[in-house]
Amino acid sequence: MATKLIRNAVIMTMNAGNEVLKGDIAITDNVISAIGANLDVQADVVIDAGGKVLLPGFIQTHIHLCQTLFRGRADDLALIDWLRQKIWPLEAAHDEDSVYYSALLGLGELIRSGTTTILDMETVHHTEYAFRAIEESGMRALSGKVMMDHGTEVPLALQEETDSSLRQSVDLLERWHGAANGRIQYAFCPRFVVSCTEELLIGVRDLSEQYKVKVHTHASENLDEIALVEAERGMRNVVYLDHIGLAKPNLILAHSIWLNDEEKGIIRDRGVKVTHCPGSNMKLASGVAQVPELLREGIAVGIGADGAPCNNNLDMFQEMRLTAFIQKIQHGPTVMDARTVLRMATMGGAEVLGMEKEIGSIEVGKLADLQLLDLEDFHAYPSYDADLFSRVVYAATRGDVDTVLIDGEIVMQGKIVRTVDRKRVLK
Ligand code: GUN
Ligand code: FE
Fold first, then answer.
1. Going by CA atoms, what residue is nearest to atom 5 of ligand 1?
2. Is the beta carbon of 83 within 6 A of some atom in ligand 1?
3. Is there a contact between 110 and 393 (Cβ–Cβ < 8 Å)?
4. Quick one: which of 75, 116, 269, 326 has the most CB atoms within 10 Å?
5. For residues 33 and 27, what is the distance between their CA atoms, to the nearest angstrom?
6. What is the DSSP letter of 299?
7. Where does Zn(2+) bind (predicted)?
């Protein structure tokens, strides 16, 4: 058994009471085994936190690692034109190496900015290579190949037959679900209704039940997308997903901006989960999601940067601030307070992934997915009694992340990502 001890930290537990403690935490193998003042533990590795802030690692519930290399190619288009003119041709041009390096580069950026779990969506081909990069990086991840067996203007290279899309997904699932000590999971990723036949979606429904895995898709991101779904299927997005039996607790919807009351009711009543992507929603001019209302309804809402072309740096600190700002400017200063936003970035993400017993907070028995922040750089006042939640949400940046552990392993220390060699990625 390997034991690690982190000493003298200011621990933002993100437990049910959002308690902040001063003290030590012990990690036995990959699990938090003790929390307290002056723990008397024989440890193989001791990290002296010296008053640094220990937080649960961030959980990003919507990422496209395969798009990391596409940054800066499509900065002023709306969703459908952006996909047709830029993203789909670029995804069609991907090969094994470019998928691998795109993923590795994205994973390095995510770890550097304190993210320890992602829900990822790949492209049609070469997803095997993204999984290899995930495995090497040490990231906790749910990922899957994107599924696209339908739709206009999809490049030939991305067009799939229904059977083959389902079969390839199951092949990847059987190879990767539960890999790396359970750190890697498979998730079915039908891209969005616009790119999927009903037959494919029904196949995904049945297979996700059979294998007990998540379904990750985009829904109601953009008004043109909604119009396409209504024209073809005669229903709003979420109503259609419910109609074919996909609206269940294992369904995770990215964006979900333009939900009407019926759709919100379906999401709430069926236990469907939502991912908010504020940077992407603003950059693609998609709209403002109804996050405060969804939270009031008891719906689990996580946060994700989306692909790198949408948020540009995959940085949860930026996404947290945008989550707060975009609501405050519309609904006033108290509508999304810092505690709520930090919960969305940690426990909220865990709830979206159905992993609230395993990750999202610093509590004995939970997996050791942690980030240590050095906040001394930018505030002269050595006062952790000032509102630490506000400091983390409004003032911290990824440059303040010093050390990151995932599954009890140190994946970054002294601001160096140990598991991802940047020189190799950029060769
Ligand atoms: N909807 C369907 N595909 C995509 C994608 O790649 N990115 C975003 N933001 N929305 C999508
Ligand atoms: Fe997306």
1. 83
2. yes
3. no
4. 116
5. 5
6. -
7. 62, 64, 218, 306
Q: 286 C-alpha to center of ligand 2: Å?
A: 12
- Answer yes or no: are the C-beta atoms of 13 and 362 closer than 8 Å: yes
Q: Is 87 in the pocket of ligand 1 (CB under 6 A)?
A: yes
Pocket flag, ligand 1, residue 280 (CB < 6 Å) = yes
In this prediction the ipTM stands at 0.99
Residue tagged 């998730």 (tokens): 187
Task: Domain 58-352: give its CATH code.
Answer: 3.20.20.140
pTM, rounded to two decimals: 0.97
Q: Class assignment of domain 3-56+362-419?
A: mainly beta
Evaluate: CB of 310 within 6 angstroms of ligand 1.
yes
Output phi, psi for 374, to 5 deg: -105, 100
Residue that the structure tokens 């003298």 belong to = 8
Annotated domain spans of the chain: 3-56+362-419, 58-352
The pLDDT tens digits of the residues spanning 363-413 come to 999 999 999 999 875 554 555 556 889 999 999 999 999 999 999 999 999
Give the burial class of 385: count Cβ atoms within 10 A of its Cβ; 0-12 exposed, 13-18 middle, 19 or more buried.
exposed
